[in-house]
Amino acid sequence: MAPTSYQAPHKGDADHNQTYSQSTGSAMSSQQSTVGDILSGKGQDVIAVRPGDSIADVATLLSGKKIGAVVVRDQTGAMVGILSERDIVNQLAKTPGSTLSLRAQDLMTTGIQTCAPSEILTAILKRMTEGRFRHLPVMDDGQLIGLVSIGDVVKHRLIELEYEALKMKQMIVG
């Protein structure tokens, strides 16, 4: 039995081959979020240390700023590495009692992966998950313009998904 709101086509009605039903794609923005969208809300501040800074100082900075990683820059300001709390903890497990006197250059990760502000968040999330790293420097025209964490990406995606769910509810309700 058809719903009471259904009315069968009548002779002379317009062509019914075309559908007007909504899909998730038609209701949502077709534009996918990018790294630049995160930076526009978060800002472009990048906390950096020098290669010769002690791990004790870096750990104090990480704790004080409530961040998980810092960029390591040389005297010219060029990015030469990234140092995360995970790097420090791994070294602490290997050499307890002697880690804090080491230097940032001793533990930093070199050969850093970076991203551009135009990159799509879902692709960045996949790269970070597969590469098992949580921080990604953002480069634009060879310049470091920000740092995004996996937490930033997940938070942004959750907000988007909540918005999309709301829009779908609005479509269903009318």
Automatic annotation (TrEMBL):
Instruction: Write out the biased-composition intervals (Polar residues).
Output: 17-35
Residue span of region Disordered? 1-35
The UniProt keyword set, sorted, is: CBS domain
Cross-referenced InterPro entries, in alphabetical order? CBS_dom, CBS_dom_sf, CBSX3_CBS_dom, Diverse_CBS-Domain
Listed Pfam families: CBS
Q: Where is the CBS domain?
A: 38-99, 108-164
- At the top level, the lineage of the source is Bacteria
| PANTHER family, sorted | CBS DOMAIN-CONTAINING PROTEIN, CBS DOMAIN-CONTAINING PROTEIN CBSX3, MITOCHONDRIAL
This protein is called what?
CBS domain-containing protein
